[in-house]
Amino acid sequence: MMPYLLSAGAGILVGVIYALIGVRSPAPPTIALIGLLGMLVGEQVVPVVKRLIAGEPVVAFIQTDCARHVLGPHAGAETPPAAKGDKA
């Protein structure tokens, strides 16, 4: 339930920001999709930078974890162990 409340809170915050800068919501589809892509990619910047600083391999991380997060799981792929216990 908490992820839904956090998502609703983030949506309300974005709505307030839209109102303050005078952008109408919902945004045109192209702009909305580019914004969503930007959020997904932006979420991956911090883990990549942390790995760079720690001297850990980055390319493999981007090809696996980042790609799975941004693009979603491939059809027919086994559910990751961490997600198996999650409740929707």
Word description of this protein:
This protein is mainly alpha-helical and 88 residues long. Helix content is 72%, strand content 0%. It is built from four helices and no strands. Helix 2 packs antiparallel against helix 3. The radius of gyration is 16 Å and the shape is elongated. The protein starts with a helix and ends with a helix. 0% of the residues are buried.
Oligomer: single chain
What percentage of residues falls in helices of 4 or more residues?
Answer: over 70%
**Poorly predicted runs:** none
| Mean pLDDT rating | 77
Number-wise, the strands total 0
Dominant shape: elongated
Proportion of strand residues: under 5%
Radius of gyration: 16 Å
Give the biggest sheet: none
> How many distinct helices?
4
- Written as H for each helix and E for each strand, in order along the chain, the element string is HHHH
Look at the helices and sheets and give the structural class: mainly alpha
Topology of this protein?
Elements: H1 2-21, H2 29-54, H3 59-71, H4 81-84
Helix pairs in contact: 2-3
What features would you highlight for this structure?
88 residues; single chain; mainly alpha; 72% helix; 4 helices
Question: How would you summarize this macromolecular structure in one to three sentences?
Answer:
Helix content is 72%, strand content 0%. It is an all-alpha fold. The model has no long low-confidence stretch (mean pLDDT 77).
